[in-house]
Amino acid sequence: MSRIPILDLNREYAHMQGAIDKSIQKCLKHQQWILGPEVAEFEKKFSEYLSVKHCIGVSSGTDALVIALRALAIKIKGKEYFTREDKIITTPFTFTATGDAILRAGATPVFVDIDPQTFNIDPNQIEEALTPDVVGIIPVHLYGQACAMDRICAIGKKHNLFVLEDVAQACGGEWKNRKLGTLADMGAFSFFPSKNLGCFGDGGMISTHDDRLAELSRMLMKHGGKDKYNVDHIGYNARLDTLQAAVLLAKLKYLDKFNMRRKKIAAIYSKELEGISSILLPNAASESHVFHQYTIRVSDGKRDQLQTRLKESGIGSMVYYPVPLHKMAVFKDRSVVGKSLTYAEKAAQEVLSLPIEPLLAKPEIVYVCRKLIRVSV
Ligand SMILES: *Cc1c(COP(=O)(O)O)cnc(C)c1O
Question: The pTM is what?
């Protein structure tokens, strides 16, 4: 047990190899590579899993966000794109794609601060940032933890704003017994290999209860029309790949079991690391957390040093994310910054995610904790 990487996909593949290989073999036999039968089958299975009316497979989580926003622009504004005057409120403490998708859909991101307890967007800050030109909100269920969806949906309803959930890190997670990605107007999922449900390359999914948004998303995903030789909208070539759908069909069966394991591992971490004064543990009691990451905080500027020492001890860890979006060049002059983003900036300097691969055994987690305790004093 000398090395524990942040993620070991070989182990997962070995665990499910029979089912995955069988699913891929089927594709090799039928050779229908573009929107083959696995895509429709996976869309159906995934919509049943979520209990949502429509699921539209797309080529990545980023494309899911862009296409969902474009569909919203067409439905709400009757225009292909939003304009720079249209503002969309989101968190600066997320992966770049959340903010980038807003720019690519033509709108302006408004970054507001997070709740330091959950790392998720703070509903009070959303309310403070409301202006007449705000058209929507994108809550991101960061690290697998659900945002305060009751409050966020209520704000959306009251002010006639769309709510698009970024579910890239919280696949299978719930908020009050309803699956994330089904609580608002639309949901955007990523099947990037390291996500809770990952494929063997890029893949994504759009979820919605709304017939019109589903129809528009499906059109935009394949060139912008129902007929690809006679199109209505400015579309993309952003289909979910047949092979990826085949892999996802095999892996979906393991998702709930694996999310349970993630919760168990998180509980082991929290028990083993309790009382270590130099680190702050995540708010882990929550029912609404599927622990895409187990993320601790290390204050006093000691995070990077701790990460280096862990690495020297053979323990992998990652910083998600070192730079909040409002500090990136791409968003400079293209975004609006909320009153204060202190908590997001502090989080970027303090967070450290530890290995939480579902197949890690308890002794391995305990080993990580021992090493962590040793190097953090
Ligand atoms: C991974 C991720 C995305 C983008 O998904 P891709 O499939 O990599 O394009 C978007 N938002 C968040 C929060 C993510 O973690």
Answer: 0.98
Q: By the 8 A CB rule, do 238 and 68 touch? A: no
Pocket flag, ligand 1, residue 166 (CB < 6 Å): yes
Give the Å distances, CA to CA, from 89 to 23, 128, 216.
Answer: 40, 11, 23
Nearest CA to ligand 1 atom 7: 61
Q: What does the pLDDT read at residue 176? A: 94
DSSP per-residue codes, 276-316:
-TTEE------SSB--S-EEEEE-TT-HHHHHHHHHHTTB-
Å from CA of 347 to ligand 1 middle: 19
Helix runs in the chain, H state only? 9-30, 37-50, 61-77, 96-104, 123-128, 149-158, 211-221, 242-252, 255-273, 303-312, 342-350, 362-376
DSSP 230: B
Q: Rounded distance, CA 125 to CA 121, Å?
A: 8
Rounded to 5°, the CA angle 372-288-128 comes to 100
The more confidently predicted of residues 277 and 318 is 318
Confidence of residue 286 (pLDDT cuts 50, 70, 90): low
Each residue's pLDDT tens digit, 206-248: 999 999 999 999 999 999 999 989 999 999 999 999 999 999 9
Q: Tokens in use for 271?
A: 């028990």
- Which DSSP state fits 179? E
Q: Does 94 contact ligand 1 (Cβ within 6 A)?
A: yes
For residues 102-125, average pLDDT: 97
State yes or no: pLDDT of 325 exceeds 90: yes
29 CA from centroid of ligand 1 (Å): 32
Tell me if 168 CB under 6 Å of ligand 1.
yes
Dist. CA 98 → ligand 1 center (Å): 7
pLDDT value at residue 300? 85
Cβ atoms within 10 Å, residue 358: 20
